[in-house]
User: Fold these one by one.
Assistant:
Number 1:
Amino acid sequence: MKYKDYYAVMGVGRDATQDEIKRAYRRLARKFHPDVSKEPDAEARFKEVGEAYEVLKDPEKRAAYDQLGAGWKAGQDFRPPPDWAEGFEFHGGDFTGADAEQFSDFFGNLFGRGGFGGAYTTHRRGFHTRGEDTHAKVLIDLEDAYHGATRTITLKHSETGVNGRPAVRERTLNVRIPTGVRQGQHIRLKNQGAAGTGSGENGDLYLEVDFRPHRIYSVEGRDVYLDLDVTPWEAALGTRVKVPTPSGAVELKIPPNSSSGRKLLLKGRGIPASPPGDMYAVLRIALPKADTDGARAAYAEFKKATDFNPRKRLEV
């Protein structure tokens, strides 16, 4: 994925005010509008300008984008860090209210592609307006999904300051993480969204759950995976080994003649949702080093004892 410098696209500096960004957009939109422009790449440039403006016109998305830092260059290979935008609070049903499908993969990876689909709306009765729902990502530990937890989180939202630049504000909440929560699920905090007007109630806050990268586990949906290192003799002869799981260690049978990459099922040991997920131990055969006379002699004897040829399928 290639990094997009939205400030360069708009032709403004990173310290531009919101009014300056708006003026730049109007100028560029007129210049590259496909119905009037004679530029050969007008349609592509028009979409590019629209994407940049979608981010920079919104103080919240702009402040989040600015968190990536100023050291990136347009076209540079880029991957957002796992904790990018953690706790950033966005107004509306999702990270963007625009038709994000028309935007680049860079935009989609940062701000999503309409996950809520506009399901949450503002209700008006007279002069009393319900506050907007807000949306933020929160990172939790995998173990929290197994046991449940209460976590203190800090949410950041942006407001336009007196200088026309977005200013980040913070607030702290105690959040209960329910047992069985999965990646991509949303925790709803009633009335913790934007304030209503008049006697209108506050909107709700939706926290989209993601897991922090784990030292030994990976997650796919409800299922959890562990790379399990075994010795050549354990894989060949079979054995029982103690295996860690997020809910406690268990004993796992390694069948004889197991090969590297074999998946061994620990049924029901995945995320305890309804139904619960499974856990898979993926075997990796670890070879001892031949770094002593004894080890080299053992390898030589093993070579004599078998005619094994791992490249036999390549023979012609």
Number 2:
Amino acid sequence: MLPILQIGPLAIQLPGLIILAGIWAGLSLAERKAFRYGVNANDLYNLVFTALIAGIVGARLFFALRYPAAFISSPLSLLSLNPGLLDLWGGFAAGFIAALIYGQRKALPFWATMDALTPGLALFAVALGLAHLASGSAFGAPSDLPWAVELWGARRHPAQIYEIVGAALVLLAIWPGRGILLSDQPGTTFLTFLALTAALRIFLEAFRGDSTLLLNGLRSAQIAAWLVLAISLWALGKRRGEAFRL
């Protein structure tokens, strides 16, 4: 694990740097492959940029609404670069709404746009696994397997490695022009990615040591993943059914 990259007097948070690199690489890949889905690369770039800005602002504002006392006493904290002062779900909601508004104004086709974004999302998922590996987060459960790694005072499943390999396989599965289980029906690429990612999460959670457990040992992330898998498979079947009727 290497959470801090020390370059002379400069200390760089490596996980954050990997995530930024993942966003840049994912967006670059999506732009290059956008033409395959009939989406303008510039519109796609502006859509993502708008969503990112709105997401960051929204994440900070939602966090401030949850903990107003901290920001009333120190208003400049709203401009802090500390990622711990961000509300993940609030940021996601703000970014999603901003993306929808931009897409409607530009008359971007919803399913084709989601397909065009998918290669970038899949590549970012690989980068996220690398960030987890660098920080030591998303760690595995204790294990005595030969490939277990020493982390946080115990030998554990290398869950971050599982995550990286799984995300890379999903990326190969939906790679534009070479992906498996795909058709030309708009939405197929995105929904296939969603289903595969949900199935991967269900598998990975069995090896995680930091999961939130509910009653009877059920993992909250697995329950959410099962729901996403069911919805994406239903939508995928519906999209393919529409293709057969055309």
Number 3:
Amino acid sequence: MPAVRRQAGRDHRAIRALALLLATAAVVALTTASAQAKNLYTLDTAADSSGPIVVDASGNGYITWLRTAASSSAADSVMFCKIPANGHCTTPMTLPLPAASNDSDGGTNQPYVVLAPDNEVWVVAPRYVLDDIVYWVSTDGGVHFSSAVDVNAPNDYASETSVDGVLLEPDEPYLTDTPPVAYFDIASSNPGVGYSWLPTNLVGGGSQMTGFQFTNPGAGGVAGATIGQQPDGYPLEAYWNLSSPSQVYFYRQTTGNGTVAQPIDAWTSSSTLVGDGYLPQLASGPRGLFLAYEAYPAGNYSDTPSVLDVEQYSATTNTFGAAKTLVTDPQADTSLHDGGTIDENASTGDVAVVWPKFGNSGGEMRLWISTNAGASFTYKGDIAKFGNSYSGSANLALNAKGGGFLTWQDGGGLKVADLAPIKTPKRHKKH
């Protein structure tokens, strides 16, 4: 019996040790998962564009993209999907183009989603060849959409300062055209949207448009831009030039009613230099306006920039402040035209930066988060892998629960990842 008891004791201690080991592993797994992407999947293997995504107050994601046409003479399909919080896209839909515009010349450029008041969802797509804008409107939260509405644009549309299309502001009253034209939001729920042209006064059935481009953008030509909101509500557009070295500048609106639908003289007459670098991305929200971009290592202009900096805009000085460097990569791990993104949580004010690190067989998406208004950033690690032929920039939309969606395009198609909470909720003490 004593031998049996000793063996039973050893077995019991082994079981307790195993239980402790499993519990520790579970804690480590939960800690690791808090900075990981889940529900990572390929949304469309035939995607021909990236997938800008936005989220609503309930954490649902809204994404739109282009699907490659079966024939080179046909237009790419405009796709849309509403993704439930913590779920997958199960019912992507095709948004039909206007009649007689389904050939390749009638195709759209990068579409994007805008969430408007009263449960309205807008999908907006510029068309550079036809110099117009096509949009679709849903009044039931993205379940059904109207037929395509075609709005004419200036003849010089394709040459204007543009990245993602048209940006309007929804806080203004709806206009009286049929169908009505709403202003679109530039708040943090719709981050990173650029624009080319803006309607002036469409009230009373008018159709006059105003198309303008910023003067003297700098040497090298504008390679890309992004738009955000200053603390006073006015828009600010940052861009980068293909100069040597590449440089980041911005223009800002200074007068008007806070919407982008203002003439060019409502903006600063000249741009402001941020610094040497490229691939700027803006995010705005309750903690202010933030800029992320790749800068050069000190004095080294021999290759692509490789220092990931974040700067916060000051409404006092009308400039971006001192840079906070998140990481300095080997230049071989960066790409001249392919970068990441930044987003500010519209509910919590947390700021998140996702930026790729490239390798021989793809790379990894890395996450940094600030919970103190940009005073400091914490590295959360590798949250997702991507394959070869990564294209463009990632898209990030945070929700009120500390998670959100991350999307990007690589050689395998359009990828979507549902981010697990990136901030551990506070626990109340037991009394």
Number 4:
Amino acid sequence: MFDLRAVDAYLAQFTWVRTVNAHGQLSLGRQRYGLGRAWAGQTVSIQFEPAQRTFVFTVLLSRPTAGLEAPPLITRPAQGLSATDLCGTIQPVSVPPQQLSFPRWLFDPFADSAPA
């Protein structure tokens, strides 16, 4: 019943902005993405590409880092977006069978509430 395509379509609507740390990494959705030291200090925009299930990182504001030049964009596989990551593992619940009692009007709404 869980539809990852719907999740992908939802994520594709957004753009996130992050600043890459001194180690060339950033965090998005509790996941860490390594872009490389050439990206250190750069402000990047991030968009989700649903067909490939990747994030596309694009430099917004460039800051030169020790003679390294960041490419205009880079992609990384999306992390943490599987059905198990999003919903958790499905555990079977062991509950002994029980007889449930329902009011009579639930099944016969025209019956009197008082017993005959």
